[in-house]
Design brief:
Layout lengths: L19 E4 L4 E4 L4 E3 L3 E3 L10 E4 L3 E4 L3 E4 L3 E4 L9 E4 L4 E4 L4 E3 L3 E3 L2 E5 L3 E5 L4 E9 L6 E9 L12 E6 L5 E7 L10 E10 L3 E3 L4 E7 L13 E4 L4 E4 L4 E2 L5 E2 L10 E4 L4 E4 L4 E3 L3 E3 L10 E3 L5 E3 L4 E3 L3 E3 L6
Parallel strand pairs: 13-20, 14-21
Antiparallel strand pairs: 1-2, 3-4, 5-6, 7-8, 9-10, 11-12, 13-15, 15-18, 16-17, 16-19, 19-21, 22-23, 24-25, 26-27, 28-29, 30-31, 32-33
Bound molecules: calcium ion (2 copies).
The site of one calcium ion (CA) has 7 residues, from loops.
Length: 336
């Protein structure tokens, strides 16, 4: 029972609403911890305690994602692209998809790299004509992520497109992960002797995703394997490069049948010569004999003055002269 003059009074006059309490010290209503509002009217949990992870209750008692977080704040907010963007990649906020940074290519969820470099493997190639093809390698270093088309063009130097090799232009494709692609150029085997012939190949256009390196031109030499003059020249002849015909070597002459042989077949004996007019051996002037057998000086050149060599190869004094024809003849007869 209360003393006289007193009556039961409820704390704070019983005015505190639900989720509020009366503070005995000042006899005032306050919202319970974690509740907001006017404690005599309505105490409420912000946003009805519905905000998910990484979100907060803001204006109009509405949930909002924390700064740098995205998604539905009532179901929980997540960092940009769920934090899945890897090296050299960033999150595209509107789509929440990872993309490679500008100038980089690759899989943004794994790695993005600088564009691959495409160029010829070697500055020059050599091929033997009868091999049939030359295989020219184009290589890619660095990122191999992008699928890239590359075009090439050929240029004649001394070889001619269409007759010495086939292919004026073409296109090659580097698929993802591919580091090397071959350009195969057919070489014409013309079976004709010729000098080394050359042509060049240039890379001309490349799709984005890769860039050209330094080596975008290569020179191809076609080495001839055809024999000079179409094969070995006959005996005593050699190939004349300008005309590509076999010609007789020095000192030899052409025969009626196309071969080469020594003048007079080389049968002339000493002190004889081959007469080009009839290809026969003749004794040199002042010599007697048969050009292919023996040529000799008449009487061995032993006749003295006013003496002549006879058909029997003996010396005789000229008519009207007397004496020893080997020592010299005299006009008058003298007892020797
Ligand atoms: Ca050729
Ligand atoms: Ca040839």
């Amino acid at each position: 029972m209360c003393d006289i003059g007193y009556f039961i009074s409820e704390p704070c006059g019983g005015l505190c609403c639900a989720n509020a309490y009366c503070n005995e010290e000042d006899n005032k209503c306050y919202c319970n911890k974690g509740y907001y509002g006017v404690p005599t009217v309505n105490c409420y949990k912000p946003c009805k305690d519905l905000c998910g992870t990484n979100s907060y209750c803001g204006k109009h008692n509405t949930c909002y994602c924390n700064d740098g977080f995205y998604g539905n704040p009532y179901f929980g907010c997540y960092p940009a692209c769920h934090g899945l963007c890897k090296t050299n990649a960033k999150c595209d906020i509107p789509t929440q998809k990872c993309v490679c940074n500008e100038g980089f290519f690759g899989n943004p969820y794994k790695i993005c790299e600088k564009p691959g470099i495409i160029q010829f493997e070697k500055p020059e190639y050599s091929v033997i004509e009868n091999v049939g093809v030359v295989v020219i390698k184009v290589i890619r270093t660095g990122s191999t992520y992008a699928g890239v088309h590359v075009t090439w063009t050929s240029h004649d130097v001394t070889a001619k497109q269409g007759s010495d090799y086939i292919g004026s232009q073409g296109k090659i494709y580097f698929g993802t992960g591919v580091t090397s692609v071959e350009i195969i150029i057919p070489i014409t085997n013309d079976m004709m002797y010729e000098k080394i012939e050359t042509f060049s190949l240039s890379l001309t256009f490349i799709e984005p995703g890769a860039v050209f390196g330094q080596l975008i031109t290569t020179v191809v030499s076609i080495e001839d394997n055809d024999a000079p003059c179409g094969g070995p020249c006959p005996q005593y002849s050699k190939c004349d490069p300008p005309s590509q015909k076999c010609v007789c070597i020095k000192g030899y002459i052409k025969t009626y049948y196309g071969g080469c042989e020594l003048p007079c077949k080389g049968l002339c004996c000493a002190n004889a010569y081959c007469d080009a007019r009839d290809n026969r051996c003749k004794c040199n002037p002042g010599y007697w004999g048969i050009g292919t057998v023996k040529c000799f000086k008449p009487c061995n050149d032993a006749c003295g003055s006013y003496a002549l060599c006879g058909k029997d190869n003996k010396c005789y004094c000229e008519q009207g002269y007397y004496g020893n024809p080997y020592k010299g003849c005299y006009c008058e007869y003298k007892e020797s």
